[in-house]
Give the backbone structure.
Amino acid sequence: MITQADVIIQKFGTQTALAEAVGVRQSAVAAWKKRGFIPARQQPAVLAAARNRGIKLTPNDFFAASDDQGAA
């Protein structure tokens, strides 16, 4: 299953790229990937980093792709 963390990391290219953009260690991004989500306290920084780099990212991207499973 692809998680919201996977999608966002992919938009930045690598875990290292996201970590550098946000100012955290790569191990923090690896933990986000393992948990499947980016903590709410980090989301504003991720959005700002994406905007500064021309990466298309919206608050909706922080909701897991699997949220649509119940849609018919």
User: Anything to note?
Assistant: Helices lie at 4-12, 15-22, 26-35, 43-53. Residues 7 and 13 are 10 Å apart (CA to CA). Residues 67-72 have pLDDT under 50 and may be disordered. The chain has one domain: 4-59.
